[in-house]
Each structure stands twice: as C-alpha cells, then as structure tokens.
Model the fold of this input.
Amino acid sequence: MSDGIVLRRELLLSENAERAAQFFRAAGITVSSLEERAASLAATLERVAAGDDVWVFGYGSLMWNPAFQHVELRTSRLRGWHRRFCVWNTFGRGSPEAPGLSLALETGGSCIGTAFRIAAREVQTELTVLWNREMLMGSYLARWVRLHTDDGPIDAVTFVANRNNERYAGRLPLPRVAEVLARARGPLGAARDYLERTVAELERQGARDGEMHALLRAVNTLT
Done:
C-alpha cells in the first residue's frame, strides 16, 4: 500500500477546499467555484424531500475511503453503468510529468459498489463535503441512479464521467491503463494502490473476477 496523504473529511471542508482551489488555479488548472458547487448540489437535491435521507453510490475510492459521515452502507449493483479508468489525474495519484488515472462511470454494463446512507439532518453538510471532493475539478457529473440491493432497490446519487472535461481520457486499452497505473504517483500515493484497494473491496463484497482484476494482473507484470 502507498504512503501518501490520507484523504480525511476535515481536508474536504469548504475552507480547505477553497485553499486547494486557489492552489490549483495558481497552477493553471481550471476548477469550479464555491458558488458553482453549491448550485450543482442544490440542483441535485431538488428531488429530495425535506426530512429524507440520501444514498450515495461509491464504486472506487469512496468504497474504501468515503471521508464523509454516513449511518448505513449496503453492497449494491448498478445496471447500465460500469467503472472505467478514464479520468486523467495529475494532482492526487499522479503528477503533470506522469499523470495517473481515476475511475469514473461510463454507460453500459453493470458494476458492484457500496451505497452509503446519509441521515437527513446531515445531508447538506455531508454532501457539501462530498461535492468538494468529487466536483472541484469538473471531471464528474452528479447523477441519480437506481441501485439493486438484497434489501430492495434504492435511488442514489453518484458521479459519472464528464466527457466534455479536459481530463476525460476516453476508452484507453487495458495495456495502456496498466502502464499508467504502474508508474503514476502523487500526493495521495501510488495509482497502483488505488487499484489494489478497489479490487480488495470488490472481493470483500463478493465480486467475481472481472476487468479490475484483469487490470491488476497486468499492472503486476510491470512492477
């Protein structure tokens, strides 16, 4: 496992997110404003009635490091979307010299992940934390999806690839993704660690051998 910075909830509070945003802007990186994130969150919550809990679907690092407060979690399957390493990362688990890749959801197929329930009284606060994490760089779009769980279907908000963003990498072949993940490293640690932790969590949830497992095998042959 990598020895990078652990992404903790306090680092994602708005005052800290704004410091990070100023740093990125100084480096010439386009980021969203506090007002833009607030507007996006408000639009997403239009369908949530006052007093309702909110579910969030995690399929990558949110599964093993959510960094927001929640009161329940469930293993869930999302149909019609699959996870893919398709977002360039030059600031977390990568660098401008050796960019890494992060996961996002793309249309088609299905995937297993974790649904987190946020209590109604914490929805605004905790989703603001989550928006500071996922929506700062413009790489994702928030979307409501229907999840299937052992306890029945639930609606949840998740984050899908923004194909119009400059960081969108498209559909890269597996050998190319493996090459990137095998060498990329940034302040949050190694890109390989991101993949390893995701595969470990999928196995804990009982996921069968799939594309993430094949990708990890390919990465292992390069290191």
Remarks:
- The chain has one domain: 9-220.
